[in-house]
Amino acid sequence: MQGVEFWDHAVHSAIKNLPKNHRWAKSYAKASTDGSRQRIAEAVFYLANGIAGPTIRGPTAQIGCKLNLGAAAKEVAPNLTTSEAKRFISQEEYPNTSSWLWSEVVSNFPELKDAAAPGSIPVIRWVIKMMNSPNRRDALFKSRVNNFGETELEGSAIARLDELAEEDLRDSVDATLRASVERSVKEKWSGPDELIPKPRWVDNLPEGVILLRFASELFLEGSEMRHCAANYCTNVHNGSCLMWSVKSDKYRATVQTDLRGRILQITGFANKSAPNVCKKIASKLVGYIN
Question: Does the pLDDT of residue 75 top 90, yes or no?
Answer without folding.
Answer: yes
